[in-house]
Write a structure and sequence with these properties.
heterodimer; A: 10 strands; globular; B: four-stranded antiparallel beta sheet; about 0% helix
Chain lengths: ~120, ~110
Amino acid sequence: GAGVSQSPSNKVTEKGKDVELRCDPISGHTALYWYRQSLGQGLEFLIYFQGNSAPDKSGLPSDRFSAERTGGSVSTLTIQRTQQEDSAVYLCASSLSAGGPDTQYFGPGTRLTVL
Amino acid sequence: AQSVSQHNHHVILSEAASLELGCNYSYGGTVNLFWYVQYPGQHLQLLLKYFSGDPLVKGIKGFEAEFIKSKFSFNLRKPSVQWSDTAEYFCAVTRNSGNTPLVFGKGTRLSVIA
């Protein structure tokens, strides 16, 4: 079946611009996660959505970062006033969340370069 | 805070050599443990996972890992590596309290040479 998809695959932007990154989770998966992969920091959690509950935003590095999930499916991660340190690969993952421990499946990521 | 340590940053092996990659975590409660692999130019894929039961788990492509609770470890092993195993390997943990975000180690880059 279809996996997690993300768009765009690559995004180059100028410092100070806003960017939006999109994630389509696996159909039927109710949990959705955003992570960031960068050379210096490895893989870091950003934000987590579970069904209709309030998202866990504890990993967002600053108030320039926000995310929403519409209709319990597609999610958009928005970075406002981008900085060069925001350059990284942004990964989305989803899981079934049927109760009990769960496996997260990852998308291919969006490589963001801030000039 | 929960943390995951992968002690080897870069491992270089010849084909047919045996592999063991170390992973230790700091959380004292019940955990779920994962190894993910990222082949060059590809996205993260699940190699294997441990939730409960037999502490020796087998994954895809001949990989296995052993959960040793007393050592807070979940080391990855493969008896004979192939050139196609060249990739970056990530150990990750979630707490067994419902769905929680993965906490990743820094990763180990494996290079297999002919």
